[in-house]
Inverse folding.
């Protein structure tokens, strides 16, 4: 039974050092980072409603998993999910538009930052209820199996979700029906404002996958290469009808639960320590050390991304508000 | 008008609707507890497992949040799940998936997502099942934009409404009544459907309008028969669906009778009877000759003891009393 629970260690000798792959990973992670930073500016300017939950520091999980997915594969994400949406191919313009409540947004401005959905990109739903998207992803897995499709359904969620009943029920269903689902737990160490170690006695949340006899694997969530390799195996297992996999990606939320969080539950030293290991800095060092991409190449891509995000933002700002009639559309 | 003398039960009628829709559309699947080879605790899915197999008639663990949530996800991605919740009381453990998820997917996504899913369940009292297995909870669901709510009273209606519900393309809460499963009625052999949002006048009358649904339709028809002996001619409107609500048929009737009694098995306070009364006074005040009366269960949990249960739930005599009050024929005695 214990062999169902493993910790993944990247073997640098076996890794495929394909330059294009590195460019792609670098580009996706930077797109997420720059998009999130711009979103925080928007929030601080008071241009958007509600709350904003940043995923800065967790970009490697979104990128590493989604680089294994095809356009018609499904993902179920959360209120912290713009990063995963971008990694799945979402258009920053439509995302900014949605955050700003514009009619050009993915949900015509009616969903907002917490509920990004794209039928076209297989983004099933972003949930504002912790853990609630996990059974929905399992349901997509049921469709894939019943309709004999070659797709995969991925449920992204945080450490906090593993204390929800919906999580446990969903894992059990996926296990007994052997569904093509990949459960990706981004363990960023905090369930909103509560350290996860105060909320569960298991050291590794992957043990909870094992509890349902789902192959479960622990991975460094700040190393996009490791996440990619682990997700690759999980996606292949799902596609070949071998059932679900549980991935616990250990990472760190560099900012608060939401913008404006006083963060009284952790020290500045702890945050600083993780900042040294954050995925973009880490990946840059790998690229340079291994001579895959040089400073100039890395900086050029970063500059391109910044420009693209700026253009998307400007366009979104100029977009129109939805018509009042929209209130009554799409109810049923 | 279809001609038939075929008599089948309410449970059989529902079974036929499922069977026909499954035969018609491969995307229709069933999910629920003990619905497979066991055929469901009320035998509504009897025979379907043998006919359609375990891929389409799926037994689930006791895990309502899990399998309603899976139903939502499946509905969003190409299937048309019909989920059986064994007792309506059990839907309460899965309210997040019903109210926050199923009901809001279309809206939150700006119309990209649809959830063509039916939750079939059964409610109501009358057989001593106690407080956690006897509730009438239709109002909870009717209060949530994004859900449609159906509660049929006859085998004919049950079949036609379930077929429409499966084709509706949005989440439908389909509430059967445990005391009606063995009730029999005419159901034609030929294919038919009944649209949601169309009330049915189960008895025409000119003196008073009784607005009701589900098992209370039967009780109201019995009350009307009694009242007839006293020269009171009651009209009985079976709403059949709470959402969409066919208030027009009610208003038309009020124009004729000028008096209304709303009858539901759910507890009286904050029940849907209050909504009907409010709509009538807002939209047909000038047609009223008396205040709208409400007949509902007492505002207590359903007691186990059969005598107490019967006293707590609305009975024919309570409906008769409600009608007489609306006609100023009898002062309240309690």
């Amino acid at each position: 039974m214990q062999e169902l629970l493993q910790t993944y260690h990247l073997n640098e000798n076996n890794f495929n050092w394909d330059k294009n792959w590195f460019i792609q990973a670098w580009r996706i992670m930077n797109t997420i980072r720059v998009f999130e930073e711009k979103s925080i500016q928007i929030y601080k300017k008071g241009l958007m409603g509600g709350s904003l939950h940043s995923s800065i520091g967790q970009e490697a999980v979104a990128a590493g998993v989604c680089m294994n997915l095809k356009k018609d594969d499904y993902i179920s994400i959360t209120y912290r999910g713009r990063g995963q949406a971008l990694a799945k191919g979402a258009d920053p313009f439509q995302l900014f538009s949605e955050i700003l409540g514009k009619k050009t947004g993915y949900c015509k401005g009616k969903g907002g930052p917490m509920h990004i959905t794209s039928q076209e990109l297989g983004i099933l739903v972003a949930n504002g209820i912790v853990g609630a998207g996990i059974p929905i992803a399992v349901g997509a897995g049921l469709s894939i199996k019943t309709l004999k499709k070659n797709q995969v359904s991925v449920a992204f969620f945080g450490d906090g979700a593993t204390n929800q009943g919906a999580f446990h029920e969903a894992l059990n269903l996926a296990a007994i029906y052997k569904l093509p689902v990949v459960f990706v737990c981004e363990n960023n160490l905090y369930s909103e404002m509560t350290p996860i170690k105060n909320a569960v006695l298991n050291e590794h949340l992957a043990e909870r996958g094992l509890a349902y006899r789902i192959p479960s694997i622990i991975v460094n969530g700040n190393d996009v290469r490791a996440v990619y390799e682990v997700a690759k195996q999980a996606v292949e297992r799902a596609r070949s009808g071998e059932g679900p996999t549980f991935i616990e990606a250990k990472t760190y939320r560099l900012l608060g639960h939401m913008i404006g969080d006083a963060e009284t539950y952790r020290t500045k030293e702890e945050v600083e320590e993780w900042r040294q290991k954050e995925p973009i800095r880490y990946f840059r060092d790998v690229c340079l050390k291994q001579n895959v991409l040089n400073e100039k190449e890395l900086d050029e891509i970063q500059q391109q991304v910044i420009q693209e995000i700026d253009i998307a933002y400007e366009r979104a700002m100029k977009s129109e508000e939805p018509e009042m009639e929209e209130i009554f559309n799409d109810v049923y | 008008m279809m001609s038939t003398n075929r008599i089948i039960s309410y449970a059989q009628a529902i079974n036929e609707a499922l069977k026909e829709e499954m035969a018609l559309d491969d995307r229709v699947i069933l999910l629920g507890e003990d619905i497979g080879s066991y055929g469901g605790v009320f035998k509504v899915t009897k025979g379907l497992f043998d006919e359609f197999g375990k891929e389409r008639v799926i037994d689930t663990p006791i895990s309502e949040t899990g399998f309603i949530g899976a139903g939502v996800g499946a509905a969003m991605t190409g299937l048309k799940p019909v989920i059986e919740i064994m007792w309506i009381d059990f839907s309460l453990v899965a309210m997040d998936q019903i109210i926050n998820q199923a009901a809001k997917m279309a809206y939150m996504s700006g119309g990209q997502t649809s959830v063509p899913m039916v939750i079939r369940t059964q409610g109501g009292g009358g057989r001593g099942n106690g407080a956690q297995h006897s509730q009438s909870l239709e109002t909870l669901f009717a209060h949530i934009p994004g859900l449609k709510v159906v509660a049929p009273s006859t085998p004919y209606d049950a079949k036609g409404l379930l077929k429409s519900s499966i084709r509706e393309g949005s989440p439908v809460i389909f509430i059967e009544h445990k005391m009606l499963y063995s009730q029999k009625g005419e159901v034609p052999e030929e294919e038919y459907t009944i649209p949601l949002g169309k009330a049915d006048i189960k008895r025409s009358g000119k003196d008073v309008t009784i607005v009701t649904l589900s098992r209370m339709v039967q009780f109201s028809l019995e009350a009307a028969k009694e009242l007839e002996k006293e020269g009171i001619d009651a009209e009985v409107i079976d709403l059949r669906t709470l959402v969409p609500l066919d208030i027009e048929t009610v208003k038309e009737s009020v124009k004729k009778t000028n008096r209304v009694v709303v009858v539901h098995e759910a507890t009286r306070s904050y029940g849907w009877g209050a909504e009907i009364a409010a709509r009538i006074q807002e939209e047909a005040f000038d047609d009223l000759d008396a205040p709208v009366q409400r007949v509902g269960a007492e505002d207590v949990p359903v007691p186990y003891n059969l005598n107490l249960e019967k006293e707590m739930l609305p009975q024919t005599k309570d409906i008769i009393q409600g009608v007489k009050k609306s006609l100023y024929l009898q002062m309240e005695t309690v």
User: Anything to note?
Assistant: Chain B has a mean pLDDT of 97. Residues 74 and 81 of chain B are 7 Å apart (CA to CA).
